[in-house]
Design goal:
two-stranded antiparallel sheet, 3 helices, 3-stranded antiparallel beta sheet
């Protein structure tokens, strides 16, 4: 078995970057070394609550990220707009067979922070949601879009 790279400190996946430093991706695995097995709920909570995560089993209301949305495949039930329901259904369907919990795509928009640029945060958000919509249609998967603005967290 090949040695896998360990995620860098503070991350739960190994980011893969190409020539564009503002785009990276990675896969979050259910098992990471000696850590307890993770769930999709763990992955979602980490993104919705970059600070002040709720206690296990409590409500996911009051996120600390700037914004979030979910783009569902056409045939998905409306109930999956509830991220806790989506996470539970994901594990019920696949059980213990899940090896990879989620793919993460990170988009950075340095133009938003550049005073000389005319790009606004809402434009970056809509571009991100557009990518999520494209991925949902192409691969028939749910995409959770999360906006982090570290200066506001």
């Amino acid at each position: 078995m090949a040695n896998k790279a360990k995620p860098p400190a503070g991350l739960d996946y190994v980011p893969v970057a190409g020539s564009n430093p503002n785009l990276s991706y990675g896969v979050i695995e259910a098992v990471n070394g000696d850590e307890p097995k993770r769930t999709l709920g763990d992955v979602i909570l980490r993104r919705l609550f970059p600070t002040e995560r709720p206690a296990p089993g409590s409500s996911w209301e009051g996120h600390t990220c700037e914004a979030w949305d979910i783009v569902l495949p056409r045939e998905a039930p409306d109930a999956y707009r509830d991220l806790q329901a989506l996470s539970q259904a994901y594990h019920l369907k696949a059980g213990e067979k899940i090896l990879h919990l989620a793919a993460v795509v990170t988009l950075r928009f340095p133009e938003v922070e550049d005073p000389k640029s005319r790009m606004h945060l809402h434009e970056a958000w809509e571009l991100s949601r557009g990518l999520a919509s494209t991925l949902t249609r192409k691969f028939d998967v749910a995409c959770i879009v999360v906006l982090h603005v570290p200066a506001r967290s």
